[in-house]
Amino acid sequence: MPEEPFPVHDPALWEPVRRALAGQLSHPDEAPTVAGVQAAAERLRSLVATNQYGGLAAVLPGLLRDADALNGTGRTIRSRLLNATGWVLVQTRQFDLAELALQEAVDAAEDRLDAATAIDILAWLHLRQGQLDQARVLATRWADDIEPRFSRATTGELTQWGRLLLRVGAAAVRDNRPGEAEDALRLARAAAVRIGREVLSDSMTARMFGPVTVTMLTAEHAAIVGKPDRVLAIAERVPAEATPYERRAGRNRHRLDVADALVAMGRSAEAVTVLEELGQASPEWLVAQRYARDVVGRVVERMRTLTPEVRALATSVGLAY
Prior knowledge:
By secondary structure, the protein is mainly alpha-helical. Helix content is 69%, strand content 1%. The chain is built from 17 helices and two strands. The chain has helices at 11-21, 34-42, 44-49, 53-69, 75-91, 95-108, 112-128, 132-146, 155-174, 178-195, 211-224, 228-235, 249-264, 268-281, 283-287, 290-302, 308-316; strands at 199-200, 208-209. Strands 1-2 form a two-stranded antiparallel sheet. The longest helix is centred in the middle third of the chain and has 20 residues, at 155-174.
């Protein structure tokens, strides 16, 4: 029998996180310090970068409890932990809990760039819920508020502005606003070119921004408007691996766009190879993606006889066949 998919959506798995966000966990035996919480939080990045949701669900409650126990002396680290928590919860479709964490992250932020990192994820949350107008308005307002002067902008300012513009574009292309979508991509591309490389957009997650990220989002736009040939052409410009975060969610999402395009172009066998690679590299991430289930479903529809590989993929994403 194949293994059951990892239960990333199981509310019981995330109940300790919910209790931590509500301040319902008992206080730690020893008073935490900012340095100690910061050091523990840094270790989260490898779990985030490799999409290990079970591990994150286990360690986040204690970290959130300790950050809360700092009683305001560690606002920055608390905001960033809440930001990372919101990101994980959106990935695993715990939307109400994610919104709570992200709103708290904005409130706790000590500077506008930390707040903007949470707004970036909050706009993504609205996108995943189909709330396109809310995502577009929120991201546009914050992009306008933090728009940097290119002649003196820091990398951090360009990064957060660029990521918000990508959210504007993502909402616009889904809402049949092609001109607005292209304008947002153009501005984001200008910021990426100015930076000249891929950089982390915050210290707690594996979210990136730079020329490669903008290229992948350009391919996503092509996928959304039904141009699989253009998706594949753009994908050829994406390096096989441009960052240390080999299994980060943004690159994984791009590879799903590639798999979907391959299926649309009648190249299902190649799509299966891409999906298998994703399943091997990021099994917990793949299980959490409805898009992955849709792509595998289209593969199944096009095959007269299912191969063992396709059956295994279908089982892994929870697809009945």
